[in-house]
Design a protein that fits this description.
Chain A: One of its GO terms (cellular component) is plasma membrane. The structure holds three protein chains of three kinds. By secondary structure, chain B is mainly alpha-helical. Chain B is built from 13 helices and two strands. Chain B has one domain: MetI-like fold, CATH 1.10.3720.10. Chain B starts with 11 loop residues before the first helix and ends with a helix. Chain C starts with a strand and ends with a helix. Chain C has two domains: 230 residues, P-loop containing nucleotide triphosphate hydrolases (Rossmann fold, 3-Layer(aba) Sandwich), CATH 3.40.50.300; 120 residues, OB fold (Dihydrolipoamide Acetyltransferase, E2P) (Beta Barrel), CATH 2.40.50.140. The chains are: A mainly alpha, B mainly alpha, C alpha+beta.
């Protein structure tokens, strides 16, 4: 698979002494290049994390890796702006919408994977196509509806939007995981006398738990990071972290250390979840087209 | 006997329907109601600041929008943004995927670091770049330029759209890398070895084996990115607010301005319809690709 | 006490008919094998019997009761899947006891029953393992154990040995035959491997394109195939087929001209042929006939009616296969292991006429005048008389 794999039979055959030397050289170069690229890409995040531990004055001073770390920004973020409230909104909205989406999607994905009809494929593709609707195209009516029914700036409102926003991806991802489950096992269960409900609880759910978990995590990540609806539909009460961080864009002052501290806290959980599920996420993000 | 087996239950059709009903109904409502309203509003005089004025406007909103130079500027910006980010992420993503496919010490950690930006919320990445990276006097880039004896660039005034492109590309490059790296891992090792036996060098293998293998993954990356990039919003909202002037206003931001800053629902809706049409042109191709994939 | 009748079963998937009207009778304690090439509908037929698939039309009758609308678990059947379909998150004991757990059987009783079954299959030391930690043969035995625990009236096996390696397959074949005797149960077994069918069946059902080509004992199918398809499918290596010219018919059989000019009278009933052609039909437009002869029935013979050049020669030790070129045909011969021929030599060979089969243009075999003495034999008859009586 590797294109430049360090030691290949062909290269070894080309010259005994030099081949080994150049192969070692190649590995060294690849290691250096790989790490440099990774660090350059990661640098803004690294820098943000470091800045969060600086004082405000150190934050805007000449860039430096050497400084006395302080937690004063973290304390200030919580004390002055009530970071916890926004974080709580984010948690409630991300997990609430994920729970709802899974609840609605599991029966649907089960039906599509195990009781397919002629229309199943069409339904799946249609679900995918709802994801193509640009949010900006329906911003106006959603805003007006929310205003009229009192859902503006409420967690419920955001949960509804995020549930619907993620539903197609959740259904698709679950569908691909369910499809991968050997049908024979469910049939063996049926031969053993399992009802549909027993089939689902004794066999399907335990066996696809890793898939369901990574689907849920993707939904949490997408809801957590969503910024279009949260910026437009919330102002203060229900504003999640995306909206809170956006409030730092006001030009009144440059509170870089506090921005960094708040940002670090906002992205840390998702970054870790993302690292954990990257493999399975590919499936969901590409609707199963890449595995 | 590995043919697809239909359900053994005679009532399968009915059960399927009832199990799917919640998801399908909700998505149907989610799609039809706002879509219908958007289309309806786009033919109405409807300005929240002028409650007196209402009624059927015909194509006037579209006429207004289509003759507004701001729309064309926004369309141009949208295309530039999408085009540049796509070019950077696809080419860069492919190269990075090849790089991170090599075996080297700490490869796992390096990979994780490289895909991290994708998991950073857009408002955070935009603000980190705007303040800490691209700030004309205190940013890291300015400091770097100064250290090299070059003049610092005032990114958001001098190169506003380029700055946005850099931020967005930084977020989406990891996405392309993640997908392409996964796709690359499914490449049949035997194929590579067969090619090597046939005398192919690393470059030949890349062009004749790896790239064709990645073709599908690359097109998926392009289409999915396109759908998201067409409506980039938060990054512009927190950095430039569409400015200076209209320099960084894309279609999404223009509609936002018309709707929630000017409160002109009619015109904003007409813009929404245009955005939907644009997105659908892309969507048709993506849906076809995925549909083909469903066959196997 | 378990019999099965299938009455005119059909099955359509969309517009394609997979099973095209099958009637079948399975007797109590019979070992019935469904055999056929892939896509013939044998697995679908078994799944219809199991209740995992519904028949488009026709009745499934088990012990005199119509079962079409009865769920798979309530038909009194157990099935062993090709992939074993073990529950990967449960131990061997959990797998075998799952049906009882669903039925609400108390834990102690469950354990006792599982242990009893495990003893039969020598699974006791493995009861706490998960399927992942088992070898292929062990998984196979757990799958069988899971079926036995249910105490079914009919066992269904869906190509159960196809995932095992050759040596293990032979071993499991023997074990299954033994199990059949021990459990005294009715068993239905699906396979595409005609050797499994020949060795294990009391009754073979040959399926092709959704219809039954022939039902009968292994020896009946071997010696008296009903048509060209069965003749070609049963037996290994495959039967050789020659186009032959009809010369005449008589009460002693049908006289035909072989490729190369030799003549031979095959002792079959020409009735079917006479119905198809009238006496005035000129010889050129006589119905086409095909003569079939198994490789093991071709004998090297200096005075033989056939000749050809050896193209490939495979020595198996005890036997030697010769692949002989006769014009467009490549004829297979099984001969003694010690023949001294070489490739490119020309040989003459022949056969005993009563070993040959004649097939009409529509593929039907002309019935033999004499029944082969072993054709009525079933696997049961291989046992000593005492056994057979005990079973009867």
């Amino acid at each position: 698979m590797s294109l430049l794999r360090s030691t290949t039979p062909a290269q070894n055959a080309s010259g005994v002494g030099t081949a080994r030397g150049s192969a070692g050289m190649k590995t060294l170069v690849i290691t250096l290049v790989g790490w440099s690229v990774a660090l350059v890409i990661f640098f803004p995040i690294l820098w943000m994390i470091l800045t969060g531990f600086k004082t405000e004055s150190a934050a805007i001073a000449d860039p430096s890796f050497i400084f006395t770390p302080t937690l004063e920004s973290y304390e200030a973020v919580q004390a002055r702006s009530g970071y916890a409230r926004f974080a709580l909104n984010s948690v409630a909205v991300a997990f609430g919408s994920t729970f709802l989406a899974l609840l609605i999607a599991i029966p649907s994905a089960y039906a599509m994977a195990f009781l397919p009809t002629k229309r199943t494929k069409g339904t799946l593709l249609w679900m995918l196509s709802t994801k193509m609707l640009p949010p900006v195209g329906v911003l106006v009516p959603i805003y007006l509806i929310f205003r009229d029914v009192g859902l503006l700036d409420t967690r419920t409102g955001l949960i509804i939007i995020y549930t619907l926003m993620n539903l197609p991806i959740v259904v698709w991802m679950l569908y691909t995981f369910f499809k991968d489950m050997p049908k024979d096992i469910l049939e063996a269960g049926r031969m053993d006398g399992a009802s549909t409900l027993q089939e689902v609880f004794f066999l399907l759910l335990p066996l696809t738990l890793p898939g369901i978990a990574s689907t849920g995590l993707l939904s949490v990540i997408l809801s957590w990071n969503e910024a279009f609806w949260s910026l437009n539909l919330t102002s203060s009460k229900a504003a999640p972290l995306t909206a809170y961080i956006a409030s730092f864009s006001s030009p009144e002052g440059l509170f870089w250390a506090k921005l960094s501290a708040a940002s670090t806290m906002a992205i840390a959980p998702i970054l870790i979840l993302g690292w954990m599920t990257q493999k399975q996420m590919v499936r969901g993000l590409t609707f199963g087209a890449v595995k | 006997m590995t043919k697809t087996r239909a359900s053994g239950r005679t009532v399968g059709g009915l059960r399927t329907l009832s199990l799917q009903a919640p998801a399908v109904t909700l998505l149907l409502l989610w799609m039809i109601i706002p879509l219908g309203m958007t289309i309806w509003f786009s033919f109405q005089y409807y300005n929240l600041l002028m409650p007196g004025m209402s009624g059927f406007a015909g194509v006037e909103n579209y006429e207004y929008l289509l003759t507004d130079p701001a729309l064309w500027k926004a369309m141009g910006n949208t295309l530039l943004l999408v085009g540049w980010v796509l070019a950077i992420t696809v080419v860069g993503g492919t190269l990075l995927a090849v790089l991170f496919q090599q075996d080297f010490a700490g490869r796992g950690i390096a990979r994780v670091l490289a895909i991290s930006p994708f998991f950073v919320m857009p408002t955070v990445s935009a603000l980190v770049w705007k303040n800490m990276m691209m700030h004309p006097s205190n940013g890291v880039l300015a400091w770097l330029a100064n250290s090299l004896g070059l003049p610092a660039v005032d990114w958001f005034s001098a190169l506003p759209l380029t700055s946005i492109v850099i931020i967005v590309a930084w977020q989406w490059l990891p996405f392309a890398l993640l997908i392409l790296l996964t796709a690359m891992q499914s490449l049949d090792e035997d194929q590579v070895e067969a090619a090597r036996m046939d005398g192919a060098g690393p470059i030949a293998i890349f062009f004749f084996i790896t790239l064709p293998h990645l073709k599908r993954a690359i097109s998926v990356v392009i289409m999915i990115e396109m759908i998201f990039l067409l409506t980039i919003f938060a990054e512009i909202f927190v950095t430039t607010s569409g400015g200076p002037g209209l320099a960084t206003t894309n279609l999404a931001y223009l509609i936002y301005m018309r709707a929630l800053l000017d409160f002109d629902v009619g015109v904003a809706s007409a813009g929404g319809v245009i955005a939907i049409i644009l997105a659908n042109i892309v969507a048709i191709f993506l849906v076809r690709m995925v549909a083909k994939n469903l066959e196997d | 006490m378990a019999t099965l009748q299938l009455n005119n079963i059909t099955k359509h998937f969309g517009d394609t008919a997979v099973i095209k009207g099958i009637d079948l009778e399975v007797n109590d304690r019979e070992f019935v094998v469904f055999v056929g090439p892939s896509g013939c509908g044998k697995s679908t037929l078994m799944r219809i019997i199991a209740g995992l698939e519904s028949a488009t039309d026709g009745d499934i009758v088990i012990d005199g009761q119509r079962m079409n609308d009865v769920g798979p678990a309530d038909r009194g059947l157990a099935m062993v899947f090709q992939s074993y379909a073990l529950y990967p998150h449960m131990t061997v004991e959990g797998n075998m006891g799952f049906s009882m757990r669903l039925a609400g059987v108390p834990k102690e009783e469950r354990r006792a029953k599982v242990l009893e079954t495990a003893k039969i299959l020598q699974l006791e030391p493995l009861l706490d393992r998960k399927p992942k930690a088992l070898s292929g043969g062990q998984r196979q035995r757990v799958a069988i154990g899971r079926a036995i625990v249910r105490n079914p009236s009919i066992f269904l096996f869906d190509e159960p040995l196809s995932n095992l390696d050759a040596a293990l397959r032979v071993q499991m074949r023997i074990e299954l035959a033994r199990l059949h005797e021990k459990l005294n149960a009715t068993m239905i077994y699906v396979t595409h491997d005609q050797i499994e069918a020949m060795t294990m069946a009391d009754k073979i059902v040959v399926l092709h394109d959704g219809v039954v080509e022939q039902v009968g004992s292994p020896m009946a199918l071997y010696h008296h195939p009903a048509n060209r398809f069965v003749a070609g499918f049963i037996g290994s290596p495959k039967m050789n087929f020659f186009d032959v010219e009809l010369i005449s018919t008589s009460p002693e059989g049908v006289q035909v001209r072989l490729p190369g000019g030799g003549e031979c009278t095959v002792p079959v009933n020409a009735q079917a042929l006479e119905n198809a052609s009238s006496e005035n039909t000129p010889i050129e437009s006589q119905p086409a006939l095909e003569l079939g002869i198994r490789p093991e029935h071709l004998v090297l013979d200096e005075a033989g009616a056939l000749s050809g050049q050896i193209e490939v020669l495979e020595r198996l030790g005890g036997q030697t296969s010769l692949y002989v070129r006769m014009g467009d045909l490549l004829v297979t011969l099984m001969t003694d292991g010690d023949v001294a021929y070489r490739v490119h030599e020309t040989i003459r060979f022949g056969f005993a006429p009563e070993r040959a089969h004649l097939f009409a243009a529509d593929g039907r075999a002309l019935p033999s005048l004499a029944q082969h003495p072993l054709a009525g034999l079933t696997r049961h008859d291989n046992r000593t008389s005492g056994d057979a009586e005990a079973l009867a």
